[in-house]
Specification:
Elements: H1 12-15, H2 27-35, H3 42-49, H4 63-72, E1 90-96, E2 106-110, H5 125-130, E3 133-139, E4 155-157, H6 161-179, E5 194-198, E6 207-210, E7 216-219, E8 222-226, H7 228-239
Parallel strand pairs: 1-3
Antiparallel strand pairs: 2-8, 3-4, 5-8, 6-7
Helix pairs in contact: 3-4
C-alpha cells in the first residue's frame, strides 16, 4: 500500500471530523486535508460523513471518487473544469493492487465529438484537467471488502515536458481520427499513454456528430483515459517503488 507511514491507521474521530463539502482556501490547506486521509479505510471515511458503503462497486462506479471529492471539498461537480476550480487542481482517485500498481485505466474527461475538429491542445479539456492533479491512491483489490480498503498517501503532480509531449502526440493522433469521422479505426491499442474508450452508462447510447466533410452520424459517447503504465510511472517516481 502506498503510504509513507505503516503505523496503525487512526480513525476519523482521532483525527477530528473532516470538513465535508467545504472548499479548501489554498493549496496548503488542500494538501493538509488530503494528507489526513492517508491510512484510513473507506469505511472509516464514509462513517465520518454519514455515508453508506456499497457492498461492491460494479453497480456503484464512481462512489470512491465522489466520497473523497466530498471529503476534500471539490466543487466542480460534472463541469468540464478542474475539481478545485479556484486552485486549478484536478482530483483523481487511483485504485491500486497490493504492490502499488494501478488496476485500470484512469478516466480524464469526456470528448466533445462535434467540436474536436476545432480544438487546440492548450485549450483542450484534457490539457486543462492534467495540468495539475492531486492523485489519491486507494486499495482496489476486489477480494478486499470495500469498507476495509485503505486510502494511500496523496501526491500532487504536474506533467514533465516529456510527459506533455507524449500526451499531446496521442491527443493529436486520436483527435484527427475523430475529426475525420474515422472513429471505427480507434481501438484500445492506439496511443502510447492515452486511449479513447466508450463513456456511457449503456452501450446503446449515441450522440449526433459529424465528420470532416460535415456529414452527420450517430456515435457512442467517448472519453480520454490514461493507461495504467503511465499512472504507474507517476507513482514509481513519487514513492521510489521497485514494482
Amino acid at each position: 500500500m502506498l503510504t509513507h507511514s505503516q503505523t496503525e491507521s487512526p480513525t476519523p474521530g482521532e483525527r477530528g471530523r473532516f470538513l465535508w463539502n467545504q472548499k479548501p482556501g489554498d493549496l496548503i490547506e488542500l494538501e493538509a486535508r488530503a494528507e489526513s486521509l492517508s491510512g484510513i479505510t473507506l469505511g472509516q471515511l464514509a462513517q465520518d460523513g454519514g455515508y453508506i458503503v456499497p457492498a461492491e462497486l460494479r453497480r456503484a462506479k464512481g462512489w470512491v471518487g465522489t466520497l473523497i471529492e466530498k471529503a476534500l471539498g471539490a466543487s466542480a461537480g460534472s463541469r468540464a473544469i478542474p475539481d478545485f476550480p479556484q486552485l486549478g487542481v484536478e482530483l483523481k482517485t487511483l485504485p491500486i493492487d497490493q504492490n502499488g500498481k494501478p488496476l485500470e485505466s484512469t478516466f480524464v474527461c469526456s470528448i466533445e465529438l462535434s467540436k474536436i475538429a476545432d480544438s487546440e491542445w492548450l485549450e483542450s479539456r484534457l490539457f486543462g484537467k492534467l495540468s495539475h492533479v492531486l492523485w489519491v491512491p486507494v486499495e482496489g483489490t476486489r477480494s478486499l471488502p470495500v469498507a476495509e480498503r485503505r486510502i494511500g498517501t496523496p501526491l500532487f503532480w504536474r506533467p514533465t515536458d516529456e510527459e506533455v509531449d507524449l500526451l499531446r502526440a496521442d491527443w493529436e493522433q486520436l483527435c484527427l481520427l475523430i475529426a475525420q469521422g474515422r472513429t471505427g479505426e480507434i481501438t484500445g491499442h492506439l496511443g502510447q499513454v492515452l486511449q479513447v474508450r466508450p463513456k456511457a452508462a449503456r452501450g446503446s447510447s449515441r450522440r449526433r456528430t459529424s465528420d470532416e466533410e460535415g456529414a452527420l452520424y450517430d456515435e457512442q459517447p467517448k472519453g480520454f483515459y490514461l493507461r495504467p503504465r503511465f499512472t504507474h510511472g507517476i507513482l514509481q517516481r513519487y514513492f521510489s517503488l521497485s514494482c
